[in-house]
Amino acid sequence: MVIRKKAIIALSGGMDSAVAAIFLKKQGFVLKGVFLKLFDNSYFKESEKKAREIANILDIPFFVLDSRKEFEEKVIKKFLNECRKGKTPNPCVTCNKEIKFKLLQKRMKADYLVTGHYVKLSKNCILKAKDKNKDQSYFLWSLNQKQLKNVIFPLGDYSKKEVKKIAEKYGVLKIVKKESQEICFAGDINHFLMEKIGSKPGKIVDKTGKIIARHEGLHFYTIGQRKGIKLSSGPYYVLSKDLKKNLLIVGKNQKDLFQKETIIENVNWISSKKPKLPVEVIVKVRYGQKSFPATIHYLQKKYKLVFKNSQRAITPGQSAVLYKGNKLLGGGIISLT
Predict the structure, then answer these.
(1) pTM of the full predicted structure?
(2) CATH topology for 6-169?
């Protein structure tokens, strides 16, 4: 008697998770499609509808896991708290850790969890995907060995173009939703922040302290930002924030945005073992930006990253993700200090 392995596939309503499901079904897995209901807006309503249609085409059972309460507590509240502190957080990292790879594994019983992330997995080590333009290892640095033990990432050896062809072949391309929006629960981010945090007016000053104008709240701005400052005789760039004095510091010279080092905290090592430091690594500080070489040092519960070359707009709250070649070592959160 052949015992078929059971797996749950996190169906988002998009093309990638649909093709991941196709791969596992072809391999003989007993699949269940699960949609994570995280928030009440049109984006999630459309996504659930598409996920259900995909499950129907693939002829697999479909379940909706209502995770709105957990998402509110673990992701949205943390996001807003970090914004209040003047940081620019990345909620996708928190969602992967707390919801997709923790809550989902806990609530849905199966041998394996399958997702449509573009990454590879080898001996519980996360590796960059074949398609470097789609690689999503950046968002998975906070995972641990327990969470990776029974995970399958089927798309790591495929390009987006190849995945699209497979989706078309199986009839799911015509119904999948559009690519995910940047922050799934926010829509217009400034409108969302105004609704949840409100305005906290203060002064906009240059590096010398000269008052130029006024702002509506530091949480509406991020380091390196140019658009939306609404100052004449620009362009101006956001250089930093002074939370105690509620000052937004701006300047015209982009050279003022470059720095040679930064502190990161809440560091996680995928292998659960801290490497012998200092060690040379490759760092990525924003998804979609190029990675660069640096050396990481240990500084009493925090870590210092020293860059080989000065880097632009290192932003508190964002993730600094660490690699050795194609291997994801882990990462941390860029600190205010």
Answers:
(1) 0.94
(2) Rossmann fold (3.40.50)
95 part of the active site: yes
Q: What is the CATH number of domain 199-252?
A: 2.30.30.280
**Side-chain-side CA neighbours of residue 76 (13 Å):** 18
Give the count of beta carbons closer than 10 Å to the beta carbon of residue 160: 15
Instruction: Express each pLDDT in 117-153 by its tens digit.
Output: 999 999 889 999 999 999 999 999 999 999 999 999 9
CA distance linking residue 88 with residue 82, whole number of Å:
7
Quote the CA–CA distance of 177 and 195 in Å, as a whole number.
27
Instruction: Name residue 286's amino acid.
Output: R
pLDDT-derived band at 105, boundaries 50, 70, 90: confident
Q: How far apart are CA 3 and CA 331, in angstroms?
A: 39
Q: What is the rounded distance in angstroms from the CA atom of residue 40 to the CA atom of residue 197?
A: 19
Could you tell me if residue 174 is left (phi over 0), alpha (psi between -120 and 50 degrees) or otherwise beta? alpha
Give the pLDDT confidence score for residue 34 in this predicted structure: 97
Does the domain made of 258-334 have the CATH classification 2.40.30.10?
yes
**Which of the residues 83, 92, 125, 184 is marked catalytic?**
184
User: Please, what is the average pLDDT of the chain?
Assistant: 94
Identify whether 83 is a catalytic site residue: no
> To which residue do tokens 């997709």 refer?
100
Nearest to 34 by CA among 2, 11, 1, 59: 11
Question: Of the residues 83, 92, 95, 125, which is catalytic?
Answer: 95
> Each residue of 243-290: pLDDT tens digit?
999 999 999 999 999 999 999 999 999 987 888 999 999 999 999 899
